[in-house]
Amino acid sequence: MSETSSVPVAPPRIKRAQQIALTLLMISGVVNYLDRGTLAVANASIRADLGLSLSQMGVLLSAFSWSYALCQLPIGALVDRIGPRRLLGLGLIVWSLAQAAGGLVSTFGWFILARIALGVGEAPQFPSAARVVSNWFPLRARGTPTGIFNSASPLGTALAPLLLSILVVSFHWRWAFIVTGALGLAVAVVWFVLYRDPLRAQLSAEECRYLDADAQEVVTQSKVTFADWRSLFSHGTTWGMLIGFFGSVYLNWVYLTWLPGYLTAERHMSLMRTGVAASVPFFCGFLGALSAGWLSDLVARNSRSTVIARRNAVVICMLGMVVFTIPGALAQSNTVALACISVVIFLANAASACSWALATAAAPQSRIASLGAIQNFGGFIGGALAPVLTGVIAQKWSFVPALLTAAVIAFVGAMAYLILVNKPIPEHEPGAANAPLPA
Length: 439
Hints:
Layout: H1 12-41, H2 43-50, H3 54-82, H4 84-102, H5 108-122, H6 125-136, H7 143-170, H8 173-194, H9 205-211, H10 226-231, H11 236-265, H12 271-301, H13 306-330, H14 334-362, H15 368-396, H16 399-420
Helix pairs in contact: 1-6, 1-7, 1-8, 1-11, 3-4, 3-5, 3-15, 4-5, 4-6, 4-8, 6-7, 6-14, 6-15, 7-8, 7-12, 7-14, 11-12, 11-14, 11-15, 11-16, 12-13, 12-14, 13-14, 13-16, 14-15, 15-16
């Protein structure tokens, strides 16, 4: 018999908190991806100004992802331990200063350091967002808000070539970094002023019942230890999510970091035309994240297992990414190629939204940000490798084998999700009755 359940109506105070939280997560997420995408938009101008090769630009494009990925491991536990308000607020300040610094550098080495600092600062964004959703929404209603905060990434990426190309062409590529850095500092102020983490002691009984709907157990412990975090790696679910997200983000980041450069170098489009053409697939990605969140909630409410339902959605989206990447790489027509790329990015962002929703369903309640960050660590190891390998392959051969290689990696990731992610991770390990959490 299916475990169907309807989602209760949110009490007024909870509803207001949800609206504020999602609005701020959307705004910070858009700024987050504007900052990430600035380097991709200004790719050709930066290479010409600093005298960089395609391989060097690949290294520069990947520098952000290495620090971002490595910071995911501790940042998830920190978010679970001290809350998203302080972690994301501090992250906004750090990454905005690093982004502005990118507009002031004059050498390849200093540019790499600025991008590394950007990765450190942006690391709390998505683990914090996952924690915010788990704090303010019941279990079977988390897909839609997860889709909403994930939709900020393709929306920011879509807006980047439209908005930043104007700054690059009309002024200088450096102003694109400085303006977006200043914007991030303004958002940090608004975040600290408006957002608050929930305190159970200050919630009414009705509000607690709403938030605990569908929860298998109510967890009051707020301090996550290293042993709690380490125990996540003893589960196949964790490894399936880590490896699977590697494949998903690898393919997505080939387009995220190289699409404007690919359209100018391989398909011979002008910078202004590229600005419009490169934005279209990412607007499709925005729609993909929104629709996937809503659909995954619908499926989860009528499924025997929330974990299996959300996992299957990820796998289907990733297999679609693989299928459409192949004609996108091989098509002679720019229109056909862009249509296929648009479908891939639609599905990539749908897969990402479903992957983060999966983290809120598969993780123990006390370690949602931790598991989400571990999954994101795997993803951004893929994100770090993608621009480097793509640049090397494109320089030696062309972008076609680079895109086909990414499709193979995404297929392997889909199989990791399918084979290894089968059940939620328990809050307490079986046989550990004498210990509050596994050691």
